[in-house]
Amino acid sequence: MAITKRCLAIFLLLCAGVKCDSNTGTGTGTGTGTGTGTSSMPAPTAEDQEKDKSIVKEINALLAANKTGHYVGNREFEQQFYVLKHAVDLDAKDWKVKRHAYDKFNDYNANRLKLESELDARIAAVEKSLSGKLPSKCRKFYNNQFVELKSARSESNELKRYKLKQHSVLCAKSSEEESESDEDTNEVDDLFWWWPFGRLNATLFC
């Protein structure tokens, strides 16, 4: 288990660009006839313990409150959550690693929630368009947007951003389709102006 923790610490340190202390993770070995060896790990200082206590408290609070939005089935969220959850169990001297894991997850999650809010707003706009009268081409166009936008809510932030941009455009109606969509309105206007008194009679209805 200790090896797993150290591997995670080294991985996160490399991602963060944090330099390991010269005496961290080093070992001294003694050659004996039985081939045994010992390794020495520096104990955390009082400063390490104080900073570690602070970041662990922040991480635990974040872990308890972060499951909001469309996180179910989101593999990217699960990976980010897993790293943060296991980073909290590292040794106190690895508080810099914990701080990096916390900042990384916090940034990721804030972006995720922002993008999901924008996706929800666009989905609502598409649903409003679909509730009205549309040419068949535009109804198909918005139905496709609806499906793609809903699926994007549980995908990676990069895909969320891409699909939001791709599916935030409006359907371009041709002049012929616009005429068809206005056909009912035109028919009502024609019936109104058909009266024998002609257009001048409109003043009688005002």
Tell me how many strands there are: 0
Structural Rg:
31 Å
Report the order of strands and helices: HHHHHHHH
Helical stretch count? 8
Low-confidence stretches: 16-38, 182-195, 197-206
Q: Determine the N-to-C terminus distance.
A: 85 Å
Please tag this protein with its features:
single chain, 206 residues, mainly alpha, 8 helices
Write the layout of secondary structure elements.
Blueprint: H1 2-16, H2 46-65, H3 75-87, H4 95-130, H5 136-152, H6 157-166, H7 175-181, H8 183-192
Helix pairs in contact: 1-4, 2-4, 3-4, 4-5, 4-6
In a few lines, what is going on in this structure?
This protein has 206 residues and is mainly alpha-helical. It has 8 helices and no strands.
What does this structure look like?
It is a single chain. This protein has 206 residues and is mostly helical. 62% of the residues lie in helices and 0% in strands. The protein has eight helices and no strands. Helix 2 (46-65) runs parallel beside helix 4 (95-130), helix 4 packs antiparallel against helix 5 (136-152) and helix 4 runs parallel beside helix 6 (157-166).
